[in-house]
Design goal:
Elements lengths: L18 H12 L3 E7 L9 E7 L2 H19 L5 E3 L6 E5 L3 E7 H7 L1 H4 L12
Helix pairs in contact: 1-2
Length: 130
Amino acid sequence: MPSPSPLPLAEPAALTVPEECRRAARAADAKSGTDTTILAMGELLGLTDAFVITSGANTRQVKTIVDEVERQLKEADGTAPVRIEGLDDARWVLMDYGDFLVHVFLDEARDFYDLEHLWSDAPRVPWRVA
């Protein structure tokens, strides 16, 4: 059975996500976050503009990614999370920034919850600097 083709990147009109999402994705990438993805959620969910999803190989890396995302967003423009949940066991840490959410998973928890599949209709937003 052929593997499914990757989802196309969103059209430019659908890329209305806060710039902080891209900054969060780059911060996760700087600490070796795996398969970092931004999903534009505004049209589908209405409660938030975007999900930034990434994962780490172990709980120490998950916490390091969370710390780096928080540090870089705060240094750039003072953006701070409204709340952070899940740091105790660091399997799935949710950073709530109001306009967007950052999900930092332990690899196996990400595979289990599979948010990208659950929200497969959400356009993927490019975030890497060309």
